[in-house]
Structure formats: C-alpha cells, structure tokens
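S1.2 Input.
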Amino acid sequence: MPAPLRIRGATSVERAALEALQRRASDVWEAYREQLATHPDAIALPPAYVDSGWVRAAVADGARPIGFSVVIPGATAIHELNGLFVEPLHMHHGIGRALVEDAVACAMRDGAAALEVTAGPAQGFYEKTGFSVIGETQTRFGPAVRMRRDLRR
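S1.3 Output.
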C-alpha cells in the first residue's frame, strides 16, 4: 500500500533536488527539451521563493519530494501559480491535482480572489482542475495560454 501523500513547505536544503525534479518533469514535454537544455537558467528555483514559503513540496514517503508547486502572492487579489512539477514516475496519480488544491487553499488563506497560471502544454490538466482560459501570453519560449481559477465562494 503506497504511503499517504503529504504537502508541506519546502526547505532550503531541498532546492537543488527540486530543480532536478523540475528538469525531469519538464523533459516529458518534447517541445521544451531543447529550449531548456539551451537555457538551463529557466529551471532555477530562486532561494527567496523557498525562504518566503511560496514553495510547497509533496512527499509520500516522508523523505524526498515527488512534486512541488510555487505560488507567488500578487500585488492585487490574484496569486500566480508560478510552477507545478511532478516526478515523471508519479504523474497521473493525483499528485498534481493535490498540489493545485493545496495552492488554492494557501491562496485563499492569504486572501486571494483568484489563482492564475501560464499553462503551456498542460492546459488540459489545468482545465480539469478548475482553471479557465482568459487569454494568451508570450513566454521566453513562445506563446502560451493564460488561465484563471476563481477562488471566491
């Protein structure tokens, strides 16, 4: 029987491991492999994000993270889901969904009215977790879909 999933704040000693996890998770998208290899700085997880408590880690065995999310508070009532990554071997087992729900709970606790994300190829996943398309945006790697989940009850 698999260990229960727990989501907790990430620690600064995990930062390098989370960046490596992000690389593995991002490499599942063939369209991004070459771009990320050319621009490894795109995988960088700023220490300030971890130190501010914006990074949440999913653990199932109590040890190493198998997924993580980054939620950055906005100047307005809109928070940014800046990153969500799951170990490839653990994808499609509900970890990403659990991280989204944790991000929503954290954003609501902090008074946010909405959570936004730039979806890229994961648009279908975000639609399944309650996000709606609100437009398109330009990223350093090309155009992407912008999505929002309303948090007001």
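S1.4 Remarks. The chain has five helices and seven strands.
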